[in-house]
Amino acid sequence: MTTSRITADVAALRASADQGLARPVAARVTELEALRRGIRTRRRDLQRALAADLGKSATESSVTEIGPVLAEIQTAVKNLRSWTRPERFSPGTLLAPSRGSIVREPLGTALIIAPWNYPVNLTLSPLVAAIAGGNTVLLKPSELAPATSRVIRSLIEEHLDPAWVRVVEGAVEETTHLLAERFDIIFYTGNASVGRIVARAAAEHLTPTVLELGGKSPVFVDEGTDLAIAARRIVWGKFTNAGQTCVAPDYLMATPATLEALVPELREAVREMYGRNPMRSADYGRIVSERHFDRLRSLVDDDLAVVGGTAGADRRQRYLAPTILAGASWDHPVMAEEIFGPILPLLPVEGPAEAIARINAGEKPLTAYVFSPSHEVEERFAEQTSSGSLALGLTLAHLGTTAMPFGGVGESGHGAYHGKAGFEAFTHAKPIVRKPLRPDTLRTIYPPYRAPRRRI
Ligand code: NAD
Q1: Which InterPro entries match (predicted)?
Q2: Catalytic residue among 212, 265, 378, 424
């Protein structure tokens, strides 16, 4: 795509935002319903594309990709009128008599840059929030999920108004052109090094950003936890989408005794979900690219593998077995950065205090997970660690609710979305204060402030 075409697309979207096309609430609802129709009509194409790009099963695609977008649409359509209603406030005695309200104003034209790992959900859920907020939108799907990117583009072109939403497909070159344009908000999901590129480009135009990044999301399993249930919840959260999930448990900490008891439960949970040979399981995904496959394979130390390992790994199919490593040290390469694949290292700690200290020694994660029978231990993690969110007794499934703002903190990003939080991310909270001219109470605060000096 040429630079001039990108510039023309942005200009068209800006013109329609300026003309107020995306402002009327009824029009936003109509556009969201058109998106819903498009997704339903093209559901099979989306599922096929997700299978081609990431080996996702139709069920996993429904649960983690298409379903969540439809839920976002449903929530927005149902609540948009109440979200857009001005919120009254009292400016207080100093300004009395007066009235105040806060209106949620559309930001204008949004740029959404999406990643490859949940290429439907993470492209279209922010789109729902941007439309709900009354913005025109330029969407940039990830080139690393090319089949999905193509279907999304044709779906949008067939079902949505081109004055409202446009799609630019492409990679670094196209995104670089896009980032040189001026937008009113940039919503980026992906890794933190590109996040910095986005933030720098946005600073040039003072454009606000939402950065949905990643990091190493820790799990702590406390003594006395029901290990069979915890193991299933951890295995599911870790190996869904072959571990390529921003909030996937990255590493697991427990005391040596708990780890020893947990390993057989984890092994059993992997076998229950993916069978003896996960390569043959229709429910186990593939690594997105050979580059990522090579990176992940090099992290697997077969001597440490208590589940899986590199035997059976297949570069051509980009298959790497669900793998659990025991006995890796804290300075093992697997602990150097976000794993983002089907490898779970188990690390011994003395107890909650050391687990908390280890979390605090790293960057703030997107999510932290704690499995503990003790409310007091849960509270310690809540108070003494910082993360985008904290999930107690579950992994991953907490993203399934539109009632929870989802986003990172520090190195895992800033800003949040899902449900009302998404609407808020794409709008400006504008206070409006109204004061009648009479009585002229403001006279009391005009200068001169000092009483005139008396002449002696
Ligand atoms: P990716 O490679 O698809 O990149 C994301 C987007 O950035 C793509 O659209 C890509 O075209 C664009 N991009 C890449 N290089 C660029 C450059 N040099 N300049 C401008 N744009 C560029 O996806 P990824 O970054 O590999 O995604 C994985 C990361 O995203 C992980 O760290 C993961 O934790 C994080 N993630 C976060 C969330 C979340 O919601 N917080 C969700 C999914 C993934």
Answers
A1: Ald_DH/histidinol_DH, Ald_DH_C, Ald_DH_CS_CYS, Ald_DH_CS_GLU, Ald_DH_N, Aldehyde_DH_dom, Aldehyde_DH_NAD(P)
A2: 212
pLDDT in the model for residue 70: 98
Residue 50 Cα to ligand 1 midpoint, Å, equals 17
pLDDT per position as a tens digit, 147-192: 999 999 999 999 999 999 999 999 999 999 999 999 999 999 999 9
- Beta strand spans in 135-270 (E): 136-140, 165-167, 185-189, 209-212, 217-221, 249-254
ipTM of the complex: 0.95
Dist. CA 188 → ligand 1 center (Å): 8
- Tens-place pLDDT, residues 258-298: 999 999 999 999 999 999 999 999 999 999 999 999 999 99
212 is catalytic: yes
Spatial separation of the C-alpha atoms in residues 64 and 67, rounded to whole Å: 6
What's the pLDDT at 455?
64
How far is the centre of ligand 1, averaged over its atoms, from the C-alpha of 360 (Å)? 25
Please report the atom of ligand 1 found closest to the CA of residue 179. Answer: 20
b/e code 22-61 from CB counts within 10 Å (16+ = b): beeeebbbebbebbbebbeebbebbbbbbbebbbbbbebb
Q: Which DSSP string corresponds to 359-383?
A: HHHSPPPSEEEEE-S-HHHHHHHHH
Give the span between the Cα atoms of 136 and 113, in whole angstroms.
14
